[in-house]
Amino acid sequence: MALDRRLLTALQALALLAAIAVAGYLTWMKAQNQIPPCTAGGGCAAALYSQWGYVAGVPLAYIGLAAASVLLVLTPWRAQPARAISVALFLVGAIFTIYLRYVEQAHFDGNVCIWCVSFMAAWWVAGACEVLRLVRPREPAPEPA
């Protein structure tokens, strides 16, 4: 059974809400100069406060929060410009998640930040929904009776 566009839109919105929750929590922890609890993996503090945790001096948690929020706002829009912006943002974010997983493995002694992995999973689910919505043909308009 194929997922219809409404279900994909709802799933995308839920995944983005999860990404916003994680990025928002990490943003708050970063702003408070706190260390997030790391129940699994042990690399949370290293990931949040490392030299790789910034782009042009802006913490990645802030960027993730902003990007996921923009994408959530764009999710219900069906217009092609909104869909094109969404796909582009998802692709850039996907590249960053892959790069950050590499950094985590290469520089954090194999420790994993569970918060980072959670954000990455939510991002990829939302991105997969976006791509499926993009390639799925629109339902034909009902014919008048």
C-alpha geometry? elongated
Low-confidence stretches: none
User: Which class do the helix and strand fractions yield?
Assistant: mainly alpha
Order of helices and strands: HHEEHHH
The chain-level mean pLDDT equals 84
Oligomer category: single chain
- Give the neighbour order of strands across the main sheet: 1-2
Topology:
Layout (H helix, E strand, L loop, with lengths): L4 H27 L12 H6 L4 E2 L2 E2 H15 L5 H28 L6 H22 L10
Antiparallel strand pairs: 1-2
Helix pairs in contact: 1-3, 1-5, 3-4, 4-5
Description:
The protein has 145 residues and is mainly alpha-helical. The protein has one domain. It is 68% helix and 3% strand. It is built from 5 helices and 2 strands; from the N terminus they run ααββααα. A hairpin with a 2-residue loop joins strand 1 and strand 2. Helix 1 runs antiparallel to helix 3, helix 1 packs antiparallel against helix 5 and helix 3 runs antiparallel to helix 4. It is elongated, with a radius of gyration of 17 Å. The relative contact order is 0.20.
What keywords describe this structure?
elongated; mainly alpha; 68% helix; 145 residues; 5 helices
What's this entry about, in short?
With 145 residues, the chain is an all-alpha fold. The chain has helices at 5-31, 44-49, 60-74, 80-107, 114-135; strands at 54-55, 58-59.
